[in-house]
Amino acid sequence: MVGVQGSKGEALRFTETARRRAAIAALGLVAVLTLGACSSEPTVSASGPDGGGPLNSETGGKPAAPAKLTYEPAAGAQDVAPGQPIRVSVADGTLDQVVLTNPEGKQVAGQPSEDKKSWSTTEQLGYGKSYTWSGKATGTDGKPVEIGGAFTTVKPRKQVGANINVFDGQTYGIAMPITLTFPSKVTDKASVEKALSVETTPKTEGSWAWVHDDTSVHWRPKAYWQPGTTVKFNAKIYGVKIGDGVYGKEDRSASFTIGRSQIVKGNTQTHRLLVIRDGQQIADYPASYGLDADPGRVTPSGTHVVMSKHDTYSMTNERYDYENVVVPSAVRFSTNGEFIHGYAKSIWAQGKKNISHGCVNLAPVNAKEYMAGALVGDPVEIEGSTQKINRARDYSDWTYSWDEWTKLSALGS
Question: What pTM did the predictor assign?
């Protein structure tokens, strides 16, 4: 009897153990299935969702597709401005080969992007010519797509150049603006402005503004330049629309440096001219400014900019009955004809009285000393007079607040 009872107990223990093992195995199976669902790569069907085309691992699991080409300008376009972007780009694929051919059968130089998604020209196109695309792209579906089509560039009614006020290798003062001046009014300001660039080291905030009857666009920094700044200016205006049937004739560029800080401060009421260099006053000259009683002779208040330097200069003003009066050490700071220059005949009035016709008269020795240290682009800040700088005529860039200046950009502030 004891043996039989013992056998039943063993059987019961065996059954309970088997149940526990089965439960553990079941839990283990669930854990394996759960772990597999979280960590292993999903099985990708050979077909896309909803029965679409085959999936391509290079497209991030998106359905493979044929290459879609976009041309700039569009195929068949006429009167294309040669200065606008000329490129072909692809979606859902890559560019294998791109050729743009001119009417003589010569290939136009170009450069593909690193990802082979686009190709752009790197040389100028001609006016009034037809260009033809050829080449091949491959879609994510692995199938080739031919590149083709043609466009024709505009034949301008007139080509115009532009003058710039800065030159390679020169050093300018801290108020120096960059100007690009056309021979006639510019009606397509936005196109021109998009073709302009200013690169600076260190980075300098600045903006373009259209002044002087829409014939001239100026770039100035928000505040005076930081001394030692290097500047690269590019005006890629060849092929750019300037106005109705008028296009740019050639590009212009210049690289230059900003020199030390020098600010000239003149006061028509104290009859003094101060020179501040790198924050320190280095000169205090007695001066005679324009006659206060005559608005046509007053030296206007505001921030002017040194424009040029001359060992001697011949002065003529028919309105005031003088002609070919030669003065020494003349530093021009206005398009209206104001200079800082030497004039021995007015020494008696310098430091005491204003008698000139708008210029700043100094003793010849002082004018020579000042001119020796002056740079084109130095600011000349005049105060105390009854007249202000004429924005429509003078070099008036620094008479505008920053908010006013940025609103004069064709591209907005």
Answer: 0.80
- From the list 382, 390, 397, the residue with the least C-alpha distance to 270 is 382
- All structural domains of the chain, each given as residue ranges with its CATH number in brackets, are 68-153 (2.60.40.3780), 158-258 (2.60.40.3710), 262-383 (2.40.440.10)
Spatial CA neighbour of 180 closest among 170, 169, 195, 168: 195
Residues noted as catalytic: 341, 359
Q: What is the pLDDT of residue 62?
A: 73
- 318 φ/ψ angles, rounded to the nearest 5 degrees: -65, -30
For the cut 60, the answer to whether the pLDDT of residue 252 exceeds it is yes
pLDDT of amino acid 298: 96
Partners of 53 in beta bridges:
none
Provide the pLDDT for residue 58: 52
Cα–Cα distance for residue pair 43/182, rounded to 1 Å = 66
Strand order in the sheet with 280-286: 280-286, 272-277, 262-267, 379-383, 302-305
Q: Is the dihedral of CA 359, 336, 262, 399 positive or negative?
A: positive
Q: What is the 3-state secondary structure (H, E, C) of the chain?
A: CHHHHHHHHHHHHHHHHHHHHHHHHHHHHHHHHHHHHHHCCCCCCCCCHHHCCCECHHHCCCECCCCEEEEECCCCCCCECCCCCCEEEEECEEEEEEEEECCCCCECCEEECCCCCEEEECCCCCCCCEEEEEEEEEECCCCEEEEEEEEEECCCCEEECCEECCCCCCEECCCCCEEEECCCCCCCHHHHHHCEEEEEECCCCEEEEEECCCCEEEEEECCCCCCCCEEEEEECCECCEEECCEEECCCEEEEEEECCCEEEEEECCCCEEEEEECCEEEEEEECECECCCCCCCCCCEEEEECCEEEEEEEEEEHHHCEEEEEEEEEEECCCCCCEEEECHHHCCCCCCCCCECCCEEECHHHHHHHHHHCCCCCEEEEECCCCECCCCCCCCHHHCCHHHHHCCCCCCC
The better pLDDT of the pair 356, 33 is held by 356
The closest alpha carbon to 375, from 225, 243, 270, 245, belongs to 225
**Higher-confidence residue: 49 or 315?**
315
Closest of 99, 94, 90 to residue 68, by C-alpha:
90
- Given a contact cutoff of 8 angstroms between Cβ atoms, the answer to whether 384 and 270 are in contact is yes
